[in-house]
Structure formats: structure tokens, C-alpha cells
Design brief:
alpha/beta, Quinone Oxidoreductase, Chain A, domain 1, 2 domains, 30% helix, globular
Length: 330
């Protein structure tokens, strides 16, 4: 069995290696064994390899926050999945050809999905959903502003907000993505800059923006905070800048804007196992119906993890980089 292992923290393409690992064996009671069909390389995985992620396990370690599996065997007392079912794994270490996990961590998803899209179901779609659900009581007609709008999460926010009648101001760094975001349903697309608050206010005709979503941190977070209405909320869920989130004193002290953080694990932990499975079943249905879709830049076999990691860190990509540990998807 092949898997990816890092033996030091550093540049991902230098520290991640494809190795031969012992076979996993049969599942024990309450366990599930599945073949990993595909996994995406996410920013969190890059940070994990660099040693800058919030989790820094002893080495050697296997990265991989998400992936799609097909069940090959189940242990005693496992009833919610069977061999042949598709699952997503709620645990890590998914950069491997095969995984053995506790049954409760294998969340079933329905057949008939685009397998490459399903490999990206675990993190970004529920992140977008809970960013919209958990921080402000949004009603149809309300406005939300987000930066990194062309990311997978940003694209999902646009689609899920539109389905609820919520309007979006989408902050980007490049003009060439405007048309694509409008095609998804973006109401407003603006380029980031020091006068963002004024331009956002003009674009919404002065309507209050109830929720701000930030994945850059630093001064970009401050600009989102300055766009949000009095008493509004800014949710920071990432730091592309590598900096801590910043808010202006005027936004916090004078206008009562609240800054909070978001982590998908914490968001899901507030819900029962049945609710979590329901969330993924609903998102899988939206994926099956074509409502949710994330662009894919390239596919690589697991043996070419170095090339895959190099590509995943390059600017100008046209979507996610996916790795296929067990050959072409079928």
C-alpha cells in the first residue's frame, strides 16, 4: 500500500514522499476499510507540511484533511455503510491508497455523484454553509461581503447565499474572474483596495451589509470590517496573508462590529452525528444536481506527489489539484 509521509516540516514538495506501507488488514468491530479514490490538496494541507498548521503531530506523519473513499469491508456491528458505498472520512491522514477508520467517521454519500467533485465535499461546502448559517440571522434581501471570493469556499458561498435570497458583495484580486463569479450568481464583484468600503457602499446603494467573511486576515480583514454595518459580524476563517486578523477601532468601539473566528471542526461539533450526516447528505444532493461545483486544475497519481504539490502552490491555477491514489476514477 502506498501513502504519503513527511519526515520533517518544510517546503511540502521537499518533505512529502510516497512510500510503501504495510497492508492495513481487515476491519475490526466498529471499523470500516475503504480505498481512497481521490484527495484534493488544500491550503491546510500545505500548512500542515510546512509545520505552520494548528495541528503539528510527531513525525513521521501523513497529511490529508479530506478525500473520497469506496468501502471494501466493514467490521461487526457496522450497519450504516456496506462494501461498495461511497464515504468521506471525517478524520485526517487521507493521503494514502487505503484507510481503516472508526465507523462513525465514515460518512456515507449517495451514488451518482461526480467522483472528483465528491472528493472535495468534506471541507469547503460545509464551511461555506456554516459561515452563512452560524453567525448572523440572514434574511432574503440581506447583504454579505466576502474576500477570496474566487476560492472554492467563496464560490460555494455565492451559490448557497443566492439559493437563500441573500445578496453577495465579492472581493477579488483579479479582474479576470468577475465574469465567472457573476455566472455563479454573484450580485457584486469588486477588486480589493483601500477604498473598498466606499465602493461596497455604492454597489449596495447604502444597504447594510450584515455579515463579512474574511479568509485573508491582516489589513484585508480590517477592510471587510469597515464595510459591515453597525452591529454586524465579521467571521475570519483563514489567513492567506499569514497575519492575524485586524479590525479598526472605529468598527469595534464606535459601530459595534463583532469579530469572531470560524473552524469547521468546531462548527460541526455543535451538531449531533445525525445532523452532520444530514448536512453532508444535503450538500451531496446539491453537488449531484450541479448546484455546487468547484473547478479542478489537474489530476496526478500518488507517485507524483512532488509535482502535484508544486502545482498546488502555483498562482494562476484554474482550480484544485487532485491526487488519484488508486488510478483513474471509475
Amino acid at each position: 500500500m502506498k501513502k504519503i509521509e513527511i519526515i520533517a516540516y518544510g517546503a511540502p514538495e521537499e518533505v512529502a514522499h510516497c512510500i510503501d506501507a504495510p497492508a492495513l488488514g481487515d476491519p475490526g468491530p466498529g471499523e470500516v476499510v475503504f480505498d481512497v479514490l481521490a484527495f484534493p490538496i488544500n491550503p491546510a494541507d500545505i500548512s500542515f507540511c510546512r509545520g505552520s498548521y494548528r495541528l503539528r503531530p510527531p513525525l513521521p506523519a501523513t497529511p490529508g484533511a479530506e478525500g473520497l473513499g469506496r468501502v471494501i469491508a466493514v467490521g461487526a456491528d457496522v450497519t450504516h455503510v456496506k462494501p461498495g458505498d461511497l464515504v468521506i472520512n471525517m478524520q485526517r491522514e487521507n493521503w494514502a491508497q487505503r484507510r481503516r477508520v472508526k465507523a462513525e467517521d465514515a460518512v456515507p454519500i449517495p451514488p451518482g455523484l461526480d467522483l472528483a467533485q465528491a472528493a472535495m465535499l468534506r471541507i469547503n461546502p460545509p464551511t461555506a454553509l456554516l459561515l452563512l448559517e452560524d453567525h448572523a440571522a440572514l434574511k432574503p434581501g440581506d447583504w454579505v461581503i466576502q474576500n477570496v471570493a474566487n476560492s472554492a469556499v467563496g464560490r460555494h458561498v455565492i451559490v448557497l447565499a443566492k439559493a437563500r435570497g441573500v445578496r453577495t458583495v465579492n472581493v477579488v484580486r483579479r479582474d479576470d474572474v468577475t465574469g465567472k463569479l457573476r455566472d455563479l450568481g454573484a450580485d457584486v464583484v469588486v477588486k480589493d483596495g483601500p477604498d473598498l468600503a466606499e465602493r461596497a457602499r455604492a454597489a449596495t446603494a447604502g444597504a447594510p451589509i450584515r455579515l463579512g467573511i474574511d479568509a485573508v486576515s491582516g489589513e484585508a480583514c480590517k477592510r471587510i470590517g469597515d464595510c459591515v454595518a453597525d452591529g454586524g459580524v465579521v467571521v475570519s476563517y483563514g489567513s492567506m496573508s499569514g497575519q492575524d486578523p485586524v479590525m479598526s477601532r472605529a468598527a469595534v468601539n464606535m459601530r459595534g462590529v463583532n469579530l469572531t473566528g470560524f473552524n469547521l471542526g468546531r462548527g460541526l461539533a455543535k451538531r449531533t452525528q445525525e445532523q452532520v450526516r444530514g448536512i453532508y447528505a444535503d450538500l451531496a444532493a446539491k453537488l449531484r444536481d450541479g448546484l455546487l461545483k468547484a473547478p479542478i486544475d489537474a489530476f496526478y497519481p500518488i507517485e507524483e506527489i512532488r509535482s502535484a504539490l508544486i502545482r498546488a502552490q502555483q498562482g494562476g491555477r484554474h482550480g484544485k489539484v487532485l491526487v488519484l491514489p488508486n488510478g483513474p476514477l471509475q
